[in-house]
């Protein structure tokens, strides 16, 4: 007896056996699984394949997440060293004498320490995914004067002229710690791009309802080969720089609904313009709505668009402060305020002299056509 050919499949096995002693009789044996076992075995294979794919995908996702976390940590470390350079230089300069014979020296010393603490708190909060400060409408002069004092001291051994001029008292929409960082980096760039006599002017003015801040220097300018890439990727014109300044400044200005522009640059100097949203003192915005989610949505949208909005969960809260609210303020009232109708509240406020009142409702405007004192009827979507 001798074996013949053997055919093997996924769910069956076939064996052929020859018997020479019996006139080469060929015997074929086939072992085959039942339909039920075939189905179970097929499902088992599919589950195994799915498990393997899931493990591969999960591993790749874990590796990518780890890589992203490492990149974020690296960026955070670079940013920390980049930001802390200026106040440390200021401290080192003052520390050379360490004799607070004048009030200004003590002010510089304490101001620099305060700024380092601000940066540390900001970084710490970032790692905890918390917000240290939100952008809001604030005045410029105190912050800029603080930066100028710091920089004059930091570059005391250089021939530096640093001047701030303003033709407006308007407020601008920004976040103080981040703006300090932006101005500090831009001034550092101007100093490092200059030769002997360094002249930097910071000018503030109102243009087209925006607050404009121009930083003008007499440096050597930005090379044309990298000018087009500034603000879009991490590059630098400095030998030891890392390019974080311009990129992050542009990103922050965009978040504040403003922008960063390089107006001109040449061998005679560079002008960088920061455009901020200016505050319209004539308009204040108010929302009366008993839905917390609606109030949060409006507050978030208003903050992103530089709108000063105050919200109330009931008409009673608004009534308590109505004497301090300007009559031409923009007021939005929810039609359904629990047991109180928004239309009745609107009518009462209109009788007291509030003329810019709108109704927020899911109902069509036609429902409120009899209330001709309403400025408009809108949905619950924020109008700004």
Provide the fold topology:
Blueprint: E1 2-8, E2 12-19, E3 25-32, H1 35-95, H2 103-127, E4 136-138, H3 141-154, E5 160-166, E6 172-174, H4 176-192, E7 198-207, E8 210-217, H5 224-227, H6 244-255, E9 259-266, E10 269-277, E11 285-288, H7 292-304, E12 309-312, H8 315-321, E13 330-334, E14 336-337, E15 340-341, H9 342-351, E16 357-360, E17 376-378
Helix pairs in contact: 1-2, 1-3, 3-4, 4-6
- Low-confidence stretches at least 5 residues in length (pLDDT < 50)? 127-132, 235-244
- Main sheet record: 5 strands, mixed
* SSE run: EEEHHEHEEHEEHHEEEHEHEEEHEE
Count the DSSP helices: 9
**What share of the residues lie within helices?**
40-55%
Mean pLDDT rating = 77
Look up the CATH topology of the largest domain: Heat Shock Protein 90
CA-atom Rg in angstroms: 35 Å
Please report the first level of CATH classification, the CATH class of the largest domain. Answer: Alpha Beta
Beta-strand residue fraction: 15-25%
The total beta strand count reads 17
Using the alpha-carbon principal axes, give the shape.
flat
For the biggest β-sheet, the strand order reads 5-7-8-10-9
By CATH's scheme, which homologous superfamily of the largest domain applies? Histidine kinase-like ATPase, C-terminal domain
Number of domains: 3
């Amino acid at each position: 007896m001798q074996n013949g050919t053997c055919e093997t499949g996924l769910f069956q096995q076939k064996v052929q056996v020859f018997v020479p002693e019996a006139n080469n009789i060929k015997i074929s044996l086939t072992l085959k699984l039942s339909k039920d076992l075939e189905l179970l075995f097929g499902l088992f294979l599919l589950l195994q394949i799915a498990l393997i794919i899931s493990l591969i995908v999960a591993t790749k996702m874990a590796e990518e997440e780890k890589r992203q976390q490492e990149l974020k940590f690296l960026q955070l470390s670079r940013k920390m060293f980049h930001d802390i350079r200026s106040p440390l230089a200021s401290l080192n300069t003052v520390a050379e004498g360490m004799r607070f014979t004048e009030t200004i020296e003590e002010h510089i010393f304490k101001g620099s320490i305060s700024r380092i603490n601000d940066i540390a708190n900001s970084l710490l909060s970032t790692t905890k995914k918390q917000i240290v400060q939100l952008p809001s409408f604030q005045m410029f002069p105190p912050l800029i004067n603080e930066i100028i004092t710091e920089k004059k001291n930091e570059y005391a051994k250089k021939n530096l002229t640093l001047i701030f001029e303003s033709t407006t008292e308007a407020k601008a929409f920004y976040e103080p710690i981040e703006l300090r960082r932006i101005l500090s980096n831009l001034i550092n760039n101007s100093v490092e791009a200059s030769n002997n006599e360094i002249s930097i002017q910071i000018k503030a003015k109102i243009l087209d309802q925006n607050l404009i801040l121009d930083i003008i220097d007499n440096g050597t300018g930005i090379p044309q080969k990298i000018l087009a890439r500034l603000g879009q990727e991490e590059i630098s014109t400095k030998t030891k720089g890392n390019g974080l300044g311009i990129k992050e400044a542009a990103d922050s200005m965009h978040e504040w609904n403003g922008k960063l522009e390089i107006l001109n640059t040449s061998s005679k100097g560079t002008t960088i313009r920061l455009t901020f949203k200016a505050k319209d003192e004539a308009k204040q915005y108010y929302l009366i709505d008993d839905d917390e989610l609606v109030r949060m949505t409006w507050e978030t949208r208003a903050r992103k668009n530089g709108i000063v909005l105050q919200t109330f969960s009931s008409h009673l809260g608004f009534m308590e402060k109505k004497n301090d609210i300007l009559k031409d303020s923009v007021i939005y009232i929810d039609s359904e305020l629990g047991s109180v109708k928004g239309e009745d509240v609107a009518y009462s406020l209109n009788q007291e002299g509030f003329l810019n009142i709108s109704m927020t409702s899911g109902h069509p405007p036609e429902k409120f056509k009899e209330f001709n004192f309403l400025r408009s009827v809108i949905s619950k979507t924020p109008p700004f």
